[in-house]
Amino acid sequence: MRTDQSSQASDNPDTPDTSGDGRSARRAVTVFPLLVLLAGAAGMISPGTFSGGAEAVPYLLGVVMFCMGVTMTPEDFKGVAKRPWAVGLGLVAHYVIMPGLGWLVATGLNLSPQLAAGVILVGCAPSGTASNVVTYLARGDVALSVSVATVSTVLAPLITPPLTLLLAGEFLPVDAGSMVTDILKTVLLPVLAGLVVRLLAGRYVTKALPVLPWLSALTISVIVTVVVAGSADAIKSAAGMVFLAVVLHNGLGLALGYGAGRISRLGEPASRAMAFEVGMQNSGLAASLATAHFSPLAALPAAVFSVWHNISGALAAAWFSRKR
């Protein structure tokens, strides 16, 4: 879920984004946790109805990533060239802090191999699709947020599989080559397709932008329903431990991301952006990969993360927005 006015808004974080797609994105990211909670409840109440939809998860994720690509503009990529140091720092922080925390949390809580692999996979995923909207709400540096999210997504096929193999390989077998192929098909190609559509039919796409955050939110909710339905029995015994793992993983990620920005003297707005680019993950991708390469149980941390990181992100954004 991106707001197309992100680059412009970042020039003055105190200037409200009054565009239709900006308002729609903010409403969607606010309602999103409730949608995901309802989706998870549906999966728990009637698992037999939805558990057969696991094969559709990669295609559903492709829809989310296509929507992300459609909201991209050439300015997003120009922002990387304008601030390579800040973007590079954000990228390194993202792919070092969250994977490392995933391994530490999984090991420290002595999680089962399936859950441990799932937590680590969440940590190895690229930035979350709602991170730039939350950064905007926090009066952070939205241009930096968009740049880091864009680069982390584009590089995911090269970084996520080997990181998962390195850190999760001790818990479960990891087919990194197959994972690369899956990320190319479900992430990079849909994003590129969306970008091409935006370039070729920008005038028509602009009219549809307010709808895209809602389409992404609804699609991710369906993914959560399928994931929860596939592991409904295991959730009853593992939910508490998974929730604790997710809260620790996300909370430490937000704190260390912000700290990395402050230590690097990027300034307050950029440090806020770093917090969300590190602490918020593309949990839809993690759920899809876990379902395809491990098991529905391994996808459970990603499903819980989908709910929690939007709640914690909204709370952190509200706190930041009141802090000058």
Short structural description:
The protein is an all-alpha fold and 324 residues long. The protein has 17 helices and no strands. It has one domain (6-321): Na+/H+ antiporter like fold (Up-down Bundle), CATH 1.20.1530.
Describe what this molecule looks like in 3D.
The chain is mostly helical and 324 residues long. Helices cover 79% and strands 0% of the residues. It has 17 helices and no strands. The chain is globular, with a radius of gyration of 18 Å. 60% of the residues are buried.
What's the number of helices? 17
Binned, the helix content reads over 70%
The overall number of domains is 1
For the terminal residues, how far apart are their CA atoms? Answer: 26 Å
CATH-level-2 architecture: Up-down Bundle
Would you state the CATH class? Mainly Alpha
Structural class by sheet pairing and helices: mainly alpha
List the helices and strands in order: HHHHHHHHHHHHHHHHH
Count the strands? 0
CATH topology: Na+/H+ antiporter like fold
Radius of gyration of CA atoms, rounded to a whole number: 18 Å
Strand residue percentage:
under 5%
pLDDT < 50 runs, ≥5 residues:
5-18
Any idea what the shape is? globular
- Major sheet size, sense and barrel closure: none
Region (Disordered): 1-23
Transmembrane segments: 28-50, 56-73, 85-109, 115-135, 142-163, 183-200, 212-232, 238-261
Membrane topology: Multi-pass membrane protein
Protein name: Bile acid:sodium symporter family protein
